[in-house]
Structures are given as structure tokens and as C-alpha cells.
Write a structure and sequence with these properties.
Length: 154
Amino acid sequence: MNFKATTFFTAALIAAATLIVSPVSHAADREAAALTGVAFEKEAGRKYQHYEVFVASEADPQVGVIFAPREDLRNFEVLALTFRDANENGIFFDEKSLYKKDVLSKGQALVVKITFFGSIPNNGIAFEDKNGVRHKYTLSESGEDGSLILAEFK
């Protein structure tokens, strides 16, 4: 697993307005780029006229994270993660599916209300790409600049 992260800025054309989302760091995995917009709701929410909301956590401080795919993502899930182990083969979590959508369609926005606890990720997402390969990512907030971090896990 490659933990070297690159930061990218991405833009999407949503409701005839250009949306520039927050910096997102992700593991060197092109499938993470299937998510056009991954941003905090406070930064991008007003740019989306229509979006679905899922409340994954009622705990404070609660933040909204927007997911807007650039291609259809099958079996999209929001995951609650519990750290299990870390070794030379990667980081391992027990996962519980909190939300599942058969297809999160291209351009469709989903706002997930979550809480970040500490430095070990407790939130994640999973989806299948167009080839049917399942990808799983932790979702956390950088302690350095506050950006969102997507990191692949097993």
C-alpha cells in the first residue's frame, strides 16, 4: 500500500455554476479520483441546489461532507470504522455499513453528517468501480491544514 498522498484541487459543473472544492489528499489510487467533489458542506453546499443528506453521527462536533461522483459508483457505502490492527501489510479496520446506495450517480450530491474523533480514522466510504472492483477509503481531517483525507485501506 502506498501511503504517499498527493493533494489535488478539482472542479465540477453543478447546476450551471463552477464548484471548486476543498483540497483533498488521497492515496495514490486513481479510483479516488472518481469522486469529483469531496468537500465540507460549509464550503460547497450552497453550490448544490439538490442533494440527499444522511446523518451518520449526531455527536458534536458534527460536520457535513459532500460526495459528488464524476462517474456512477455502484454499491456506495458510508462506513463506521473501528481500528483493528496495523502492520507492514497495511491498516485494518472493522467496518459497519451505516448507509448504502445501489448507485450514487454521476453529478448526484450526497451530504454525509459525520464526526471526526481523534487521529485514527473512524469514518469511511466504499464503492465499486465500473469494472466491479471494490474500493474502501478512510475519511479523516488533516491536523495540519484541515483538508479532507481519503486513504485506501484493506
